[in-house]
């Protein structure tokens, strides 16, 4: 094969490179190794992919010979930094034009931060090229070499030949990644996985055992009436930041935000029985309560009060709705009972109140609060609280 002939790499990208058999970092590594075998003297390559993600603007996959591919995600806050503005890749993303810096030339400008970085590594040439997806978005790939004199014209032509196949292979992979990101964001990780697996028909539900978490912010209506909308949204986000990470870290999944209310479940799975699930959910509840007490307050300094009901039982988990507008959530008497208990928590002067069923399964000590008549349920319900919370 002649120097710079990358036709075999282009063919591989169109076939195997687009498949999800290899994880993205492994696919980048194999592409670069194949290019090197074709006579492209790469010392470094990086693939930059923009993402539709609430936390990051995109990811970078950086390859160097003989070391694992480095994967780094960039938060949205990066766009306000000088490093972002001085990035050659950002220039390519914004203009859609390729950029080359022949580092071996004394007259090569040092207008981008990558120039000094690559010179320190002994690089002689740098090429940043746009990758165009079918939806019009621009992504980028960069190539660098230590070859004396930089890339030859034939080598650059060979790299150009893999550009379009690389864009197609990357787009195919990123479409599924984007779908998964959005489903994780709006319906939850486990529910999103079920949707991607084809659980999309209305009424497609299953009965599962789970710990049910139902919480809200005390006095929210009055607080909303006196606060500016932007400040209220910021407060709600801080409030949810105190709960959601604790829920996720202990195996739970948030299913729904309802104004100031939050519905989550902790599925009871296999060997992880109800006792272990109740314990982990209670650990998450204590962490959320303590974080809210420590960090959540409005602009006037008024603290946020938190109410949470925990119950364990069977729920129907799946698609509910009308036509093509569905909600992946859980319903059932157990959820209704949790809602009734949560409304009573404030009256009892408690942040966290559990059902009798939850108390029977939970190995942590709980204190009885008495039996209460709850609307819609026959017979009084025994409720329990945490020992450290005074009534």
Molecular structure report:
It is built from 12 helices and 14 strands. The protein has 2 domains: 7-186, GAF domain (Beta-Lactamase, 2-Layer Sandwich), CATH 3.30.450; 202-385, Alpha-Beta Plaits (2-Layer Sandwich), CATH 3.30.70.1230. α6 (153-186) packs across α7 (189-196). With 391 residues, the chain is of the alpha+beta class. β2 and β3 (70-75) form a beta hairpin. The strands form 2 sheets. Strands 7, 8, 9, 10, 11, 12, 13 and 14 form an 8-stranded mixed sheet that branches. Strands 3-2-1-6-5-4 form a 6-stranded antiparallel sheet, with helices on both faces. The mean pLDDT is 89. The radius of gyration is 27 Å and the shape is elongated. It has helices at residues 7-14, 24-37, 82-85, 88-95, 113-120, 153-186, 189-196, 220-226, 229-249, 274-295, 333-345, 356-361, and strands at 42-50, 56-63, 70-75, 99-101, 125-132, 138-145, 205-217, 253-258, 261-267, 306-322, 325-331, 352-355, 367-372, 381-385. The protein starts with 6 loop residues before the first helix and ends in a 6-residue tail after the last strand.
């Amino acid at each position: 094969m002649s120097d710079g002939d990358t036709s075999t790499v282009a063919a591989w990208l169109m076939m195997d490179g687009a498949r999800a058999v290899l994880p993205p970092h492994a696919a980048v590594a194999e592409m670069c190794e194949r290019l090197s075998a074709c006579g492209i003297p790469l010392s470094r390559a990086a693939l930059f992919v923009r993402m539709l993600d609430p936390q990051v603007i995109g990811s970078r996959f950086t390859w160097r010979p003989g070391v694992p591919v480095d994967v780094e995600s960039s938060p949205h806050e990066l766009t306000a930094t000088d490093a972002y503005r001085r990035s050659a890749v950002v220039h390519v993303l914004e203009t859609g034009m390729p950029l080359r810096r022949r580092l071996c030339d004394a007259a090569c400008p040092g207008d981008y931060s990558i120039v000094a970085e690559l010179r320190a590594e002994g690089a002689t040439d740098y090429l940043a090229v746009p990758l165009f997806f079918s939806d019009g978005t621009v992504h980028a790939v960069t190539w660098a070499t230590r070859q004396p004199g930089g890339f030859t014209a034939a080598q650059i032509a060979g790299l150009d030949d893999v550009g379009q196949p690389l864009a197609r292979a990357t787009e195919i992979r990123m479409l599924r990644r984007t779908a998964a990101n959005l489903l994780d964001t709006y319906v939850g990780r486990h529910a999103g996985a079920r949707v991607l697996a084809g659980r999309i028909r209305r009424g497609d539900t299953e009965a599962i055992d789970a710990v049910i978490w139902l919480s809200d912010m005390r006095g929210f209506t009055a607080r909303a009436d006196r606060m500016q909308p932007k400040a209220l949204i910021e407060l709600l986000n801080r409030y949810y930041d105190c709960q959601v990470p604790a829920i996720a870290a202990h195996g739970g999944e948030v299913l729904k935000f309802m104004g100031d209310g939050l519905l989550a479940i902790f599925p009871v799975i296999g060997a992880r029985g109800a006792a272990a699930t109740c314990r982990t959910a209670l650990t998450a509840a204590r962490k959320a309560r303590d974080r809210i007490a420590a960090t959540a307050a409005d602009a006037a300094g008024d603290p946020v009060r938190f109410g949470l009901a925990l119950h364990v039982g069977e729920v129907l988990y799946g698609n509910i709705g009308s036509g093509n507008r569905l909600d992946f959530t859980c319903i059932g008497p157990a959820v209704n009972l949790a809602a009734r208990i949560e409304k009573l928590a404030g009256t009892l002067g408690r942040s966290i109140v559990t059902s009798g069923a939850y108390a029977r399964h939970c190995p942590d000590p709980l204190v009885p609060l008495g039996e209460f008549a709850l609307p819609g349920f026959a017979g009084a319900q025994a409720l329990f609280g945490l020992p450290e919370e005074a009534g």
